[in-house]
Amino acid sequence: NTKAFIFDLDGVIVDTAKYHYLAWQKIANALNIDFTHEHNELLKGVSRVRSLDIILELGNIQASQEDKDKWLIQKNEDYLTYLVDMNESEILPGVLPILQFLKEKKQAIALGSASKNARPILEKTGIISYFDVIVDGNDVTNAKPDPEVFLKAARLLNINPEDSIVFEDSVAGVQAANIGKMTSIGIGSKTVLHEAKYIFEDFTLIDTHFIEELIG
Ligand code: G16
Ligand code: MG
């Protein structure tokens, strides 16, 4: 049996959410918008363009496309400065053993991320070779909860959506997996991710027996 195991990036493999937050905070501060940790939850799994719109809505700010483009560039340039020193130590606990186990079991592995910076992050953390397929923010037009990113990954792997398993930390991502008829596994809080079929606080709590059962 071969199943497709599709991993979200941010919040599942690496904790880049903290860097996104710092970079967005600078933009928000410059615009006098109060941007808290709770607000940041709204941006998880959401595209860069949509994230800026959400922040501007929080501040009740109408902006020209020109200004928006400028802030989007600023945000990404700042975000990239946090990635310069990134290495394998930033891989979240428990992720590597699961990737290794899936490889041993000859399962198909994909990345399904909204980020346009996914490839350099996988390279810097040294795990890009685990992925048979990478679908990221450069490859899709519809953002999560639209299932496009995951459906595209499954199609490229030649595996049915019903035989695909998605690891996600965002509500939008869990919904995308469910809409795509895939098995959703939430990584994070049970209250936030209650729509997921299975929920684990983090990858250290996922054991190989559970993965074997998913493989079937
Ligand atoms: C990630 C983050 C989002 C971020 C998006 C776009 O998605 O969760 O907060 O806005 O990527 O990132 P970038 O600005 O690098 O293109 P995911 O799907 O990996 O969780
Ligand atoms: Mg995520």
UniProtKB/TrEMBL annotation:
Site features described as Important for catalytic activity and assists the phosphoryl transfer reaction to Asp8 by balancing charge and orienting the reacting groups, chain residue numbers: 113, 144
PANTHER family the record matches: 6-PHOSPHOGLUCONATE PHOSPHATASE, HEXITOL PHOSPHATASE B
Positions contributing to substrate binding: 8-10, 24, 43-48, 51, 75, 113-117, 144
GO BP annotations listed: carbohydrate metabolic process
Family affiliation: Belongs to the HAD-like hydrolase superfamily. CbbY/CbbZ/Gph/YieH family.
Lineage: Bacteria, Pseudomonadati, Bacteroidota, Flavobacteriia, Flavobacteriales
Binding site for Mg(2+): 8, 10, 168-169
Sections of the chain in a coiled coil: none
Named cofactor requirement(s): Mg(2+)
The record's free-text note on cofactor binding: Binds 2 magnesium ions per subunit.
Top EC class, one word: isomerase
Keywords associated with the record: Carbohydrate metabolism, Isomerase, Magnesium, Metal-binding, Phosphoprotein
EC number: 5.4.2.6
An MF annotation (GO) of this entry: beta-phosphoglucomutase activity
Protein name: Beta-phosphoglucomutase
